[in-house]
Amino acid sequence: MQDADSAFDLGVHADEGLLPSGLPALLWLAGALAGIQASGLASVVQAFEKKPRPPVAWLHFQDRTCCSESFIRSAHPIVADIVLDLLSLNYTETLQAAGGFQAEKCLEETIRNFPGQYILLVEGSVPTADGGIYCTIGGRSAMQILEESAKDAAAVIAWGSCASNGCIQAANPNPTGATPIHKILSRPVINVPGCPPIAEVMTGVVAHYLIYGKLPELDGQGRPKEFYSRRVHHTCYRRPYYDAGLFESTADKVGLAVGVAAAAGVAAHAVTTNIRKQRTIGEHKSESVKDEPRKGGDR
Question: Number of folded domains in the chain?
Answer without folding.
Answer: 2
